[in-house]
Amino acid sequence: NEALSNGRAIELFEAQRLTDAPWELSLHARIDEGLRNGEIWLAFQSQWDIASRTICGAEALIRWDHPLRGPIAPDAFILQAERAGRIDALTYWVLEQAITAALALNARGPRFQMSVNLSAQMVDKAELVTNFAEIVKRRGIDPSLLTIEITETSSVRNRPAACHNLTQLRQMGFRLSIDDFGTGEASLAYLADLPSDELKIDRRFISRLLDSNRDRTIVGSTIGLAHALGQSVVAEGIEDEATFHVLRQLGCDHAQGYLLGKPQPFAVFEQAYDASLQRQTGVG
Ligand code: C2E
Ligand code: MG
Ligand code: MG
Ligand code: MG
């Protein structure tokens, strides 16, 4: 009897331990399984040419539909994958998937630009450039159809190695984009040191554009600065028509945001792209 109640106590304790478990701390252990099972998938969010209001590309954004926890935000598990040293597997998986999508979309019409995010933990790794070179060669994709988004953070460990890698990737033909511009600790230093092709203005500036003259000035000047350096500008996080209109007036090149399209599974994104192509050619 006592043994039975002990067993029960242990069972209850185990159940309690599971529900209280800091599951965030063990997510990384399931990354490979999540990739194999299709729990981890890639969403695509459209990027638009502002002047013609047509889709010119997409950003690939990772998603994890965990069987027990439901959707987990990438900000949560990317950080963990970085800490657990599992970010390489995720990054190369994303790149392969994004290339598959880019090849399919480029077969349909004009140049389609595909953006992928590169973790700060990856950017200084010695094998990064050879791995990227091997992948694009094997997949037969023109690297200039791929844009690598990097975020300015203090977490890049070896800054000279990172600059060296990014310069080499750019020489191979990849486009480089500075993501979340304006929020990093050294955005201007990044602009000065890194040869990049695109600047993505962070959502926090875009969302206040209508209310704040200061933000309008900052965004307008940033666009001017980028253009003077030969870079194009993407505004991220556009949620309403009025903001889209202001950005067009400010001379911004490209736009991304819920107003224009949310991150979607490939099949849904593909339909939106086809509709945009049809409007472009005047069919339909
Ligand atoms: P990010 O690269 O700056 O991506 C833009 C984020 O803004 C995405 O969040 C997107 O869903 C969200 N967003 C886009 N338009 C709007 C809008 O109009 N309103 C609002 N409120 N949000 C909008 P998401 O998908 O949750 O990704 C968050 C971050 O996780 C990304 O920020 C990126 O830093 C990281 N991430 C996502 N996928 C990957 C990946 O494959 N690799 C790496 N290393 N990081 C990734
Ligand atoms: Mg990004
Ligand atoms: Mg961003
Ligand atoms: Mg971000």
Automatic annotation (TrEMBL):
Section covered of the full-length record: 464 to 747 of 747
Protein name (record): EAL domain-containing protein
Domain EAL residue range list: 24-277
Signal peptide (residue range): none
Organism: Novosphingobium cyanobacteriorum
Domain of life from the UniProt record: Bacteria
